[in-house]
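Budget justification, computational time. The allocation requested in the original proposal was used primarily to generate structure tokens for proteins on the priority list. As evidence of use, we reproduce two of the resulting records. The first is shown immediately below.
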Amino acid sequence: MRVRQKQTVPSLAGMHFRFTLKETMAQGAELQKQVQRIGQIVEQLDSTADPSVRAMGKELIESMMALHGAAIERILELVSETGEAGGTVIRKCAGDQLVSSLLLLYGLHPDDLPTRVTRALEKLRPHLQLHAASAELASLSDDGRVVVRLEVKSSGCGSSAASVKSTLEAAIQDAAPDASSIVVQEIGAALAQSGFVSLAQLQGSQAMTAVPVASAQRSGD
């Protein structure tokens, strides 16, 4: 069992659970509403004019996270003590989108960020090959910035290339919701011929498009 990462909350709005559960992670409309409501309350607390209220709100959330994190960590420890069967249960939990997001929140996910991104790329490989495309992890910075290089070898239509890129971004976001940002380096004529010309395309031969992990956008606000 790896050591749980210490949770820090620089601000209530900045925290928003460090990243927001995506709609695809919420199993049911009622749960999604609860997630969105939590985000709204956090933002309201962070925007209040009374600094003592903000401090109390932050302390309350930090205390609850510390308690819940310790309990979840203990649950995983007890499960792992059962041996091979326990390991299977933990891996199954890590593969569930909702449970995985919770494990990531408390720094308890069994797979680190590079492993999850690499696994997502491997899983997507057959789909990319159907579109004469390939993708690889170019770099991953200490602050969680993921850079992936996407190459489309065919000269197909721009809409098809854009669809490949969109699918790639979605797969990485699902696997790494805790990434600070996701950058796709686009290589290939099909991508360059799409209707949009980025600033990076004007500055060099490779287009770099950043995909920020913004909690407000992910929560559907």
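The second record produced under the same allocation is shown here.
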Amino acid sequence: MNKSESIAKLSAALVKCQSLIGDAKKNAQNPHLKNKYANLGSVWDAISPALETTKLAVVQMPCPSDDGKLHMETTLVHESGEFIGSTIVMPLPKQDPQGYGSALTYARRYALCSLLGVVQDDDDGQAATANVSHSVALIEACQSMEELQAVFVEEYKKFGRGSPELRVLTDAKDGRKVSLSQPFNPAQLAPAAKPAVESQPAAVAAQPIENF
């Protein structure tokens, strides 16, 4: 395994990233064995929201070789510059461009799953198409518990249960709840008659809604 001198920040980001990654949907079928599997696109759908949230990126590049096999390096990079990576070696089904391309796609899929702990889901439902980045932006823009509750309930409906997008959305909601619960800045203290109004978000937060 290749890695930077320190991977402390990357490790913390990876721990959070894996907690947000959902299962990859089995959306393709092997024409020979007739079994269903998650293709490369499905794996990326499962990991992309979590990677974006935790400031991680994946780089996959084939390496020169003279043994007639595919050598491909997969590197996980953190915004701090820290990285870890490893190389997979895979036989080629045919010594031609089509055989190389097939092996490359196969290697990329398995390397991603191995690196980030992605598993295939038996649920054949279609992945959510809503833009989780937009939903997270709406969550982070909320200025009160009432607004946060209303926005979260609406955005929650856009994503399937257990989806990676919903995990990212819930994580953003929990983070915003913490921010809104922080004490006010003493430099912005309101008149003495207003503390009761400022304490209202706590009461609103106790109102039961699903997963709030």
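A brief technical remark on that second record: Strands lie at 2-3, 24-25, 28-29, 36-37, 56-63, 69-78, 83-91, 120-121.
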